[in-house]
Each structure stands twice: as structure tokens, then as C-alpha cells.
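Researcher: We're teaching a course module on how sequence relates to structure. For the next exercise, students receive a sequence and then see the predicted structure as C-alpha cells, so they can try to spot secondary structure elements on their own. Here is the exercise chain.
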Amino acid sequence: MDKQQLGHGTSLSLREATELLAGESLSFHDAEVALIHAVEHGELNANIKRWATEQWDGSGLPGNINQQETLIERADLEAWRKSRSGAER
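Model: And here is the predicted structure for the students to work with:
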């Protein structure tokens, strides 16, 4: 799925949000960790779905977050991105 196809709905999975955020200056892993950190610290609203430890397939994400079923509203993602870009100036 390319970046132009992502985000036409109002909700994005954590994976889709990561794909939108990742780019030339940010790797997929770094983008995913930044989003998880923001969610875990209350900086970004999300409808969080967590894995039970026995459900893990390989290494899990911090907080046992299921990246396919955790949902972030596109407007919340955009607001968080703007707040980050303002903080980096």
C-alpha cells in the first residue's frame, strides 16, 4: 500500500500511521517507536489493542501494542505531527 492510499478514512491502524510517518529522515522502526511512545505517554490518542504475552509472534512492541488493531484517528495523528514539528524548531 503506498502513502497516497493511506489515510482516506478517519481511523488508521498503528501500522498505517507508521507508514505515513516513516520517510527519508525517519526509519519505519523509529516512526513506530515514536508513535508508541506518544500513545503510551498520553501525547497521542489511540484506541489501543494489546496482545496477551502468549499471543506474541516474535518480538513484541513496547506495551504489548498490537499494531494492526490499535487505531489512531487521522486528525489526532496530524495534530500530533504538527505539535512535534513545532517542538523541533
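Model: If you want an answer key for the exercise: Residues 1-5 have pLDDT under 50 and may be disordered. The first strand starts at residue 11 and ends at 13.
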